[in-house]
Write a structure and sequence with these properties.
The chain contains 11 helices and 5 strands. It is an alpha/beta fold. The chain starts with a helix and ends in a 7-residue tail after the last helix.
Length: 290
C-alpha cells in the first residue's frame, strides 16, 4: 500500500518528537538530586528506617562518588547494620576522597564501639588535675528546682570531686527554667555541698548531649585538661561517652548515679544502640540536612 507524503511527514515528525523527549522505551529518567537523597536518608536514620537510609545513600553515591558526607554516613550506618562489605567499600572510597573525614569516621566508629562496652560505675575514679570532671545536666522543674535524677547525678559528681580534689569541675546544661539554667542550678548545688565556686566552670548553652560534649570539650581545653571523667545517669552514660570521644575528649572514667544501675550493666542490644550512632554522627557534625 502506498503511503502519502503527508503521512510520511507526520510519522517522521512524531518519531523525532518522541525521540527528543525521551519517550521511546519509557519516560526519561531525571538525574537524582544528591541533596534530596541525602536529606531523605538522614530523615530515615532519625526515624529508624536504616535500610531505607542506606539505600538512598547508595543511590546518592552512585550519582556522586565523591560525596564525602554521604560516604561517611554510609560507613557509620553500615557498621551499625553489621554490613562489613559496605563498610569496607565506603571507607576505601572515603580515604581517597577525603582522608581527614575518613580518619574522623574511623574515630566515630571507634567511639561508638568503646561506648557500647562502657560499664556504668558508681565508684569515683582517682584522677589528677589534667582530668576534668564533667557532669551533664537534666531538665529542671518549671520553678528552676532540681529534679531527683539531676540530684543523683550531682551526688555522684560531688563524690568524684572529693575523690579527685585537684580536678576542675565542669557543669554543662542550658534549657533555663524560671530564669536559671541547668548548669547554674548544678553549680549552686555543688557549692552548697562545699565545693569552692572557683573550682567549677559553668557551661550554660548546651541543649543536648551533643552540645554538652562539643561545648565542654572546648572548655576543658581552656582549663588545660586533656581528659575527662563523664558523670551522668547509667541509662545515659554510653551515649555521653561516645559523644565526648567524637568531640575530641579522651574519656578516662564514666561515673554514674545509682538509679537503674543493675538494668544498665549489660551492653545494650543492637536496636538500642541506634541513639548512640545517631548522636555520634551529629557530634561529628555531619549535616542533618543540606
Amino acid at each position: 500500500m502506498k503511503i502519502s507524503r503527508h503521512w510520511k511527514t507526520t510519522v517522521a515528525t512524531t518519531f523525532a518528537i518522541v525521540t527528543i523527549t525521551g519517550l521511546v522505551g519509557g519516560p526519561a529518567q531525571a538525574a537524582p538530586d544528591p541533596d534530596a537523597l541525602y536529606n531523605s536518608a538522614q530523615r530515615n536514620f532519625t526515624d529508624g528506617n536504616d535500610d531505607a537510609g542506606r539505600s538512598e545513600l547508595r543511590e546518592l553515591i552512585g550519582a556522586d562518588p565523591t560525596d564525602a558526607e554521604a560516604l561517611s554516613l554510609q560507613a557509620i550506618w553500615s557498621h551499625y547494620a553489621g554490613d562489613l562489605p559496605a563498610l569496607t567499600d565506603a571507607m576505601a572510597r572515603l580515604s581517597v576522597v577525603d582522608p581527614g573525614m575518613a580518619a574522623g569516621t574511623n574515630n566515630v566508629i571507634g567511639a561508638v564501639t568503646a561506648a557500647v562496652g562502657t560499664l556504668p560505675n558508681p565508684l569515683p575514679a582517682i584522677v589528677g588535675p589534667q582530668t576534668g570532671i564533667v557532669v551533664l545536666g537534666y531538665g529542671l522543674l518549671p520553678d528552676g528546682a532540681l529534679r531527683p535524677e539531676l540530684v543523683n547525678r550531682l551526688t555522684a559528681a560531688w563524690l568524684q570531686a572529693i575523690a579527685s580534689p585537684f580536678s576542675p569541675v565542669v557543669v554543662t546544661g542550658g534549657n533555663p527554667q524560671n530564669g536559671i539554667t541547668e548548669a547554674e542550678a548544678m553549680r549552686n548545688w555543688l557549692v552548697g555541698k562545699g565545693l569552692p565556686a572557683n573550682r567549677i566552670s559553668v557551661e550554660s548553652r548546651a541543649g543536648s548531649t551533643v552540645q554538652n560534649a562539643l561545648f565542654s570539650t572546648n572548655m576543658l581545653r581552656d582549663l588545660g585538661a586533656n581528659s575527662a571523667v563523664v558523670v551522668t545517669s547509667p541509662n545515659h552514660i554510653r551515649r555521653a561517652v561516645a559523644d565526648f570521644i567524637v568531640a575530641g575528649t579522651r574519656v578516662v572514667g564514666a561515673t554514674t548515679s545509682l538509679e537503674q544501675l543493675a538494668s544498665q550493666l549489660l551492653p545494650p542490644a543492637k536496636q538500642n544502640q541506634r541513639g548512640i550512632y545517631l548522636d555520634a554522627t551529629r557530634t561529628f557534625q555531619l549535616a542533618t540536612a543540606r
